[in-house]
Every structure is written in C-alpha cells, then in structure tokens.
Queue: 4 jobs
Job 1
Amino acid sequence: MGVVDILFVRVARAVAGPLLATADTEWDLLLDAGLGVPFRCIRRAVPGMAGRGWGRIVIMSSECGTFARNATAGLVRSVASELSGTGVTVNAVFSADAGDPACVVDVAELLVHSPGISGEFLTVDSAGIRATA
C-alpha cells in the first residue's frame, strides 16, 4: 500500500436477526464487516500516518442498531485514545444517508479540515450534521 493520509471506511449495513434466530455464520459476517474490516484498514494506514505526524481516519456507518453503533464507537474511541498526540484523528459518523455521495463528501471535508476533532461521533440525517454521544 502506498502513502495514506486520509482513510475513509464506509461500513456496509449488516443486519442480524433476533438473538436466537441469528446463525453463527451470520454473526461472524456482521462482526467482520462492522469491526474486522475497519480494524484491518486502520492497522495498515496508521504507521505511515503517525510517522508523518498527520492523518485522518473516518469510519462511516449506517445507524443499524445499538450493538453495531456501540461496537463502532468502541473501536473509534480506543484507536483515538491510542493515537492521541500523534497528529492522527479518528472519528465515527453514523448516518441514515450513508449512501448519498453528497453526504459522504460533506462529512469527509468537515473532518479532514477540523484538526482538533478526534474521538467524536457525528450523526448525519435530514436534520443536518450534529455531534452525538
């Protein structure tokens, strides 16, 4: 992989059924799509970003339930904390409109040009872009 300054990972919406109706293979796919893929992308991009003292990581996901949102938030908080002081920021965006190209561009530009934002969570919907807990 070449030099990566900005890593933007859009997590595909994966749907799991009720606990007792979800097969192990479905659960494994959900975990890999929601956490495995972003983790592997981040792990590959971070050494170069941290070495150069600048980088932006944005994980964008549809709001698809408490588990998926909390798992993504946990990954982002953990990585943001670990990279604190390196010049690399890590943020999550939860969006009902994640498939809208204009939404993706607006959010990416906001986070790329905001040097002090890291470990934050934004929600994007018809009401606009707002910080969320």
Note: The chain has a mean pLDDT of 76.
Job 2
Amino acid sequence: MVSNPKIPILRKVFDEKTLFNIFTIKNWIQGIKDEKLRYFFLTALLSVVDNVAYAKKGGGFLRLTPDKEIADIKDVIFTKVNEMVIDIDIDHRNIENNVDSNVFWGDARKICFSEEAFDAIITSPPPILIDMITRGYIF
C-alpha cells in the first residue's frame, strides 16, 4: 500500500490523487531490477512532475498556481514514455544512417567542450524539481 508522505509543500503543490499516483509510480519504478530501465522510467517521471503540479518556478522560487489546469499523471507519464521510446528509435535510425549523436551522463557544469560541439543540450531535472529537490530531497 502506498501512502502519501506528510511533507507540507507536497500537499500544497499536488492534489491527493496526483500525489498518490506519483508515489505509486515511483514505488513501481523502484521495483524494476534492470538499472537502465529503472532510470529510464525515473527520468520520465521526474520530467513530467512539473506538468501536474500546482506550482511553477518563478524568480528563483517555487510559485503556487492553484488555478492551473492539471492533467492526469498517468496520461502524462504514458505520453512521456512513448516520446522517449520514439526518441530512442530515432537515435538508432540516426546511427544506421551515419548521423553522429552522443549522450553524456553527468554534471554538465563539469563537462568541457567547445561551443561548436553541440546542436542541442537537454538537462534534467526540470527547473521546478531543482527547487523541490534542494529543499529537502522530497522524492
């Protein structure tokens, strides 16, 4: 049985159903034995949490947005996982077509490359989670 943590900020940022579903999904992910697969799903979850929160990052702080329309986390994460699978498929097709692409895992602040080295950079976690995580590692 999943129980929602008694962390006050979470109760302000998420409704009960969404919070329950986030932790249900998180617990399911933690049970995945394959580390790469577990991190894949955890990345998906972390990347969508800000879409289902009654908050947004503003001015370096977490701003509550109680009137924000919130989607169902199950629909949002399902869509995100599908997008990520498509991205992986596209990356494999790029490899077959000799398109050069690389993924670097680590702290971007500690990786040194020339400015011309990248066409795109994707970072995680999303900004809203940085505030939440640094305020007490709630997830």
Note: Residues 8-134 form one domain.
Job 3
Amino acid sequence: MPYRTKEEKGEFVVSCDGLKDRDAFVDAARGAFSILYDIEASRGSNERVKVVVEAKSAEELLAQWLSELIERQVVYDIVYGDFSIVSIQKISPTHYLLTGAARGETYDRKKHPFPRPGLEVKRKGISCSGEGKKSYHCEFRVHKLES
C-alpha cells in the first residue's frame, strides 16, 4: 500500500503499511522524500547508490535507513526518487541488517527546492510496528516551521 501524508500539530506525518517489511521500508523512503521535495521529478534517473545499515531493532533499522538516505542526499548532492530493498536480515534478536539502493539525479535548486518552503529537516520521530507479523506500519515525522 502506498504512503499517506497528513499535517498534524505542526508536523508533516508520513505513514505507510506493507505486507512485507521491504514494502513498508520503500514506502517510508518515498513518503519521507516526497515531503522534502518532488520525487517524481527525479524518478528513473541514473545516479544510484547502495545503502547498507545495521540496527538493534526493526524500528531503529527504519530510522537508520531514512537517516542514511537523507545524509547521502546531502553529501552526494543527489535527489532520490526511486528506492529498493535488496534484503532485510534478522541476524540475531538484536542485530538487523538492511541492504538497499536509491536512484536519483544531481540536485538542481530550481527543479528541487530543498527543503520545501516552510519545512525544517529535523526528524521528529520514526516508528515501525508489526515485527513478527505479516504487516508493518511505519511513520516518519518532519517539523513544520511556524509562519
């Protein structure tokens, strides 16, 4: 199921559900980046990066995945529009490993204002529930600046 966005108490909230954790993690990235800029403008581009993150829980893994994508967007100056998960492994009860990728194009301020006007890129909270079940629910919150 695709991501959903809403405004709530001075924050933009992205939420998504997936029948498999891979789907939820991809939708969380699409949703998070769609708040930051127009991801449709950079879909199908050729710049690709591999992302590998580790964490102690599924919730922390989601936070690491989104944080790493945002950091790479800034460091490599690439606007991502396509995301994929190769694998999510539960190596032990307290060790998760995610291997994924993001594809985009070189940042152009005119085409992709970042962040969108009125937003502050400050992760307010990421949560993921459903571990061990058939469905995951993920949320990502971004602080909205006061007018």
Note: The mean pLDDT is 76.
Job 4
Amino acid sequence: MTKKSKENYEEELQKMYMQHQMLQQYIKGYSEQSTIIEGKIQELISTTDAISEIKNANKGSEIMANLGSQVFVKSDLKNTNEVIVELGAGIYASRSIEDATKILDSRKQELMNVNNQIMMEINKLAMQMKHMEPEIQKLMEKMQGQ
C-alpha cells in the first residue's frame, strides 16, 4: 500500500468517526427532549386525575392547592363544576370539568405524537450508526494491515 492510500484510509476513518459521533449527539439530544416530553405527559395525567377528584368533591371541602415549587396552601373548594384552564398565549378561561379534561387529553395526545416522532428519529439515527460501525471496523483493519 502506498502512503497516499493510507492517508486516504485515515481521512475516511476520521470522517466516518466524526459522523458517528455527531449521530450520537443527535440521539442524546432527542433522548433528552423525549424525557422532558414524558415528564409533561405524566404531569397532564396527574392533572387530569386531580380534576376528576374535584368533580367528586363537595363544595367547601378543604384541599391543598399547589402554588408551585412543592409549596401548598390549604383552601376551601368553592366550585366543583369548573376549573380555570390556560387556553394559550397567557389567556385563561373557566371550563367545565369535562371540557378541561378534553383539553388536557388533547394536549397529552399531541405530546405523545411528538414523542413518537422523536423515537422514530432516534431509531433511524441508531440504524445509521449501526450501518456505519462495520465500515469503520473495516477501515481500521485496513489501516492496521499496512
């Protein structure tokens, strides 16, 4: 083998290795996005469960209202038929328990669809990596054989 072909193998190996690393970074980023989305889905499920409990509660029942950052305040439930829901762009409105549940279910479904797309992309990238690995191995063997 000539020095030129060895340099070509090195260059090709370096290029493939960089592509492989880039694919790994993409997968890592998508996995992090998926984890965040899964957390939001769980939050929506918990909120839907809490709303259904309100529907079955009596007016005046004492509840613990979450103020955020795991801080709660005891309060009396004044309305068991409606909740206030953010509709988007900082706009809030009263909605029946049933309508609020539908809104949350719709948001959950949207997030699940996005998460499915992310998982498909992760699988596609993983397949690309898998197909690259034998090529990288061949190039390494060719270089070692010189």
Note: The chain is about 70% helix and 20% strand.
